[in-house]
Specification:
Blueprint: H1 3-18, H2 28-41, E1 44-45, H3 47-51, H4 53-59, H5 66-76, H6 82-95, E2 99-106, E3 109-116, E4 119-123, E5 135-136, E6 141-144, E7 149-155, E8 158-164, E9 168-176, H7 182-187, E10 202-207, E11 210-215, E12 218-223, E13 226-231, H8 237-245, H9 250-266
């Protein structure tokens, strides 16, 4: 085993321990468990995207190193958006021996394609959606939760993913590399874009089985009985991040400082 391979496997094992999973042979059933535990334990959040902006701008690459990405998940309770989450899942699956590649949804989303003898599967941990397993890439399915309805439709004109509430996106099932997606990732780090995730100080994950979100001061719990919503003052957000989500409060403090520097320019 080379040093590079040893380092890669050590990082993958670090993420696996966080997911409370062991190394196993690359099977579909194992993939299902990886996706489920990832969805439950790794948040969908914009805080690290925002703090990655200035270092990314300086080096010309907005994605953090895999060491930093996994370290923040394990040690600080961070996660990411689709670009980092999909790249991280692909990294893990590749190290475990899965035949995996990235895919792109227009107008902006990254997910993973995994090959099996019975055909390719759609694997997605970066959609902040109720996806707890892999699904056959070319078969339709739908999911319904207290938070949303998620529809994956395979039609003559292509593969369309619709969220209610939310937009419709079209999946290109072609295997992609992270390098081929760099221009799109660069475009997703534009503060002047009207619907950029950079504008939102957001953190979302499951807390005691309930999908729980914090977005620009609005705290929501998606209970079976309905949505419970509370407004949170900025100065109390770091404490809430620690007490409710078990995450490092500095994730918010650091992101809010960057957010304050750039948002006035786009107002």
């Amino acid at each position: 085993m080379t040093i590079a391979t040893s380092t890669t496997s050590a990082l993958a094992d670090k993420l696996l321990r966080h997911l409370e999973l062991n190394r196993e042979a690359p099977t579909l059933e194992y993939l299902h468990r990886i996706i489920r535990e990832h969805q439950l334990r790794v948040p969908f959040e914009t805080l690290t995207k925002i703090t990655d902006y200035e270092p990314g701008l300086a080096r010309g690459d907005f994605l953090p190193s895999m060491d930093e990405y996994i370290g923040r998940i394990v040690e600080r309770g961070a996660g990411g958006l689709c670009w980092t989450l999909a790249r991280g899942l692909h990294f893990l699956l590749d190290d475990l021996g899965f035949d995996a590649s990235l895919m792109y949804m227009d107008p902006g989303h990254c997910c993973v394609r995994v090959e099996f003898p019975e055909g390719p599967y759609y694997a997605d941990v970066g959609y902040s959606a109720p996806i707890f397993q892999a699904y056959p890439l070319f078969e339709s399915f739908s999911l319904d939760t207290p938070r949303e309805k998620f529809e994956y439709e395979v039609r003559d004109g292509g593969i369309f993913v619709t969220r209610n509430p939310g937009p419709t996106k079209q999946l290109d099932p072609s295997p992609r590399t992270i390098e081929s997606l760099k221009p799109i990732i660069d475009g997703a780090n534009d503060w002047s874009a009207g619907r950029s995730f950079l504008h939102n100080l957001a953190y979302s994950t499951y807390v005691d089985g309930v999908y729980t979100t914090l977005n620009n001061g609005l705290f929501r719990r998606y209970l079976a009985s309905g949505v419970e919503a509370t407004t949170v003052e900025p100065e109390t957000v770091p404490g809430l991040l620690r007490e409710v989500f078990g995450a490092d409060p500095q994730l918010y403090v650091e992101a809010a400082a960057v957010h304050a520097r750039y948002m006035p320019r786009t107002a």
